[in-house]
Amino acid sequence: MADLPSQGIDLVWMMPGKNSGGRGVAVKEFLAKAKEDFLKKWESPSQNTASLDQFDRIKTLGTGSFGRVMLVKHKDTGNHYAMKILDKQKVVKLKQIEHPLNEKRILQAINFPFFTELEYSFKVVKLKQIEHTLNEKRILQAVNFPFLVKLEYSFKVLNSDTSPRNLIVLTFEYLHSLDLIYRDLKPENLLIDQQGYIEVTDFGFAKRVKGRTWTLCGTPEYLAPEIILSKGYNKAVDWWALGVLIYEMAAGYPPFFADQPIQIYEKIVSGKVRFPSHSSSDLKDLLRNLLQVDLTKRFGNLKNGVNDVCVEAPFIPKCKGPGDTSNFDDYEEEEIRVSITEKCAKEFAEF
Questions:
Q1: What is the mean pLDDT of residues 308-328?
Q2: Is 37 one of the annotated active-site residues of the chain?
Q3: Active site residue: 87, 184, 193, 324, which one?
């Protein structure tokens, strides 16, 4: 996790709504330098910065359609990492090559306090997998974000400048300044470090877009209307997704849900939101402006940018130290399958 002071900008100074006049100047300078650094790495991405035999695999932290994320330990340094292992053949079969290539290229180029950092990446010639090794003493001292959702719903914690919502707002401000759309905000992709700060993970659907894009991707409950209607969309879809997340944090369930995706899409496109009885007027007002079908009225997409979006509270999880996985679910461990020859070499030549 990047250190805020070393980047020349104070956390409180960065917060939307704090010293808004001075913040504008400071953040403008910060984002300009950040974009310069990003573009250098974006144009010259790193390749094969480690090898599999440098790590001891400890435990599976999560599984997905193309592979799994494992807790690993570097044999020489003793540092713990989260290693994302992808099956190249599955990725190619499902025609999803663009996503891991985008994710790796983006992760190696971004540098912001509230993202997991890509420490290593490599392809294994004798295996059918590719690996992302995400550095984080912090990520491995984290809990899954759904745990925070339950706590906020139960305890109704008070407003705070260092809240999960505000940190997500800052991450979007940073990403959007680089012409990056995240496109996959949901509780499962958010972690909390041992100091209570949010970290955004999983950039598989992230994409660099200067205008509009038309790809249908993301979690059904979190899709913006313009994605569903195939009208072409831009960064504003991330602000819609933030509205869905805030609603779910407050209510314990998303604003648009049904048994079938098509039913979910119909509800989303209608733009009609029903609020829980305990919702405050401020919360309703914020959500109406984030879950706004009209892009010219959607918060985050307006002249005031992130300053239109208000905030909520932090949570500090219990953590025993580096390598503690007690806040993650248990998964059945599997051996990494060995292949005699390299698979899908052409498709992953740029990885």
A1: 68
A2: no
A3: 184
